[in-house]
Amino acid sequence: MSNTFRSFFQLLPAFKGKLRLARIFNNKKIKNHQEYFFGVKNGLNFFVPNLIENVYFELYAYGYYEKETVDFFVKTIPQNGVFVDVGANIGSISVFVARLRPDVKVYSFEAAPAVYKYLAKNIEINQLSNIKAYNYAIHKTDNIQLPFFSPTDKSGKGSFSSVFTNEAVMVNTLNLDNFFQKNNIAPNAIKVDVEGYEKLIFESMESFLKTSKDCFVLFEHVDWAEDFAEGCKSGDAQITIKEYGYHLMELEEDKLTPRDFIQYKGSCENLLATKNINFSIPK
């Protein structure tokens, strides 16, 4: 797919089979297993490790990844707020938020060293001064080294569990409560996408979450990923954050629906945790 045709393709509205069609046009590039650099929406540019990983290919073909998630944060983070992205990957969410909300301070955390270098590079090439990146695995235990499993081709699937690969690299851990206190940070919005280890992330900032009155958290519920996570079972993240005083809502497109507990099988849901029972998305 040439740059001209790809730009045109990005402008096309979403339709059934669009991504499949894009894969047919780019079959050779996908099989190349090599790094790519390209432009996306909002005047941004991205380096990606390959086009095999779904996150990277959607950026390439659509010009964005999870637009609904980006739009949600752009609309809901308060003026001059603070956004924390845990499991930032190459910046597919936080780089967009930083560009579209220059008033917001963004802190992005990515555990896998090989992925982090692309996150740092994408921040640099887009000249974003309101975002900082950190190569740490968020954990309730601070400043230790743990094995982290991140497959070479599907680097968006990194985890403390050997789900997609048996090859691991040692990563340094960071406790978010300590980080927030040391840097005098009080997030207004947090995104957590860590392949089933969401409970561990919540425990890492337990003190902050319990005392904060206005911070909200968007996280994924993937039942099988939580079941694979060491010391966790499906639904543990929801139970934990509810114990901290949060209410749950399910985010579907631009709609929020209150939920008590979600235990769908074989599916993936975006859940919002908030202490504000009247939380709504600005129009």
What would you note in describing this structure?
By secondary structure, the chain is α/β, with parallel strands linked by helices. The chain has two domains: 3-62, no CATH class; 67-274, Rossmann fold (3-Layer(aba) Sandwich). 34% of the residues lie in helices and 23% in strands. The chain has twelve helices and 13 strands. Strands 5-4-3-9-10-13-11-12 form an eight-stranded mixed beta sheet, with helices on both faces. Strands 6-8-7 form a three-stranded mixed beta sheet. Strands 1-2 form a two-stranded antiparallel ribbon. Helix 7 links the parallel strand 4 (105-109) and strand 5 (131-134). Helix 5 packs across helix 6 and helix 9 (198-204) packs parallel to helix 12. The longest helix has 13 residues, at 113-125. The chain is globular. The model has no long low-confidence stretch (mean pLDDT 91).
Count of domain modules: 2
Number of helices: 12
The appropriate CATH architecture of the largest domain is 3-Layer(aba) Sandwich
Order of helices and strands: HHHEEHHEHEHEEEEHEHHEHHEEE
Spatial strand sequence of the major β-sheet: 5-4-3-9-10-13-11-12
CATH fold call of the largest domain: Rossmann fold
Any idea of the CATH class of the largest domain?
Answer: Alpha Beta
Compute the number of strand runs.
13
What is the CATH homology-level superfamily of the largest domain?
A: Vaccinia Virus protein VP39
Radius of gyration: 18 Å
Helix amount, in percent? Answer: 25-40%
Largest sheet: 8 strands, mixed
Specify the overall morphology.
Answer: globular
Unreliable stretches covering 5 or more consecutive residues: none
Content-based structural category: alpha/beta
Could you tell me how far the N terminus lies from the C terminus, measured between alpha carbons in angstroms? 36 Å
Mean pLDDT across all residues, rounded?
A: 91
How much of the sequence lies in strands comes to: 15-25%
